[in-house]
Amino acid sequence: MLRRKLAHVRPSVRAILYLLRNEFSFGLLAFCALVTMFVSFALHISRFEFLIVILTIGGMLSVETINTAIEELCDHVTPEEHPHIGRIKDLGSGAAFIMWCAAFVVGLIIFIPHLL
After folding, report:
1. What is the DSSP letter of 70?
2. pLDDT for residue 33
3. Which of 11, 70, 81, 91 is the most buried (most CB within 10 A)?
4. Tens digits of per-residue pLDDT, 49-82?
5. Which residue numbers in the chain have pLDDT < 70?
């Protein structure tokens, strides 16, 4: 029973390993997430602040994963350049950038008071 349940997790783990090995931006974000976790512990932020940090990191990595999935699908459908495919990829990238901006602001709001 447990073996069957764990079999459902394997594709997710493979996907994360693929992202870490093949997608520079995901790897960079994962590294930044680890640094952020270290800084969170070092500054002894509150449990609530830590919860916000964890949710923000999860959101950022999730949006980047979805953006990569969109790009992979677009490249599979039309390997050559196409204006609509380009717009779709730009929209996915825009979503990741919006999340990055939100994560940056969350980081400023949480960490600046602890640094001052």
Report:
1. H
2. 96
3. 70
4. 999 999 999 999 999 999 999 999 999 988 888 8
5. none
Q: How far is CA 95 from the centre of its chain?
A: 11
Q: Does domain 28-115 have CATH number 1.10.287.3610?
A: yes
**Model pTM score:** 0.86
**Secondary structure (3-state) at 100:** helix
Residue whose structure tokens are 């990595």: 61
Separation between Cα atoms, residue 64 and residue 44, nearest integer Å: 28
Q: How far apart are CA 9 and CA 14, in angstroms?
A: 9
pLDDT at 79: 80
Length of the chain, in residues = 116
Tokens found for residue 75: 């490249």
Domain locations in the chain? 28-115
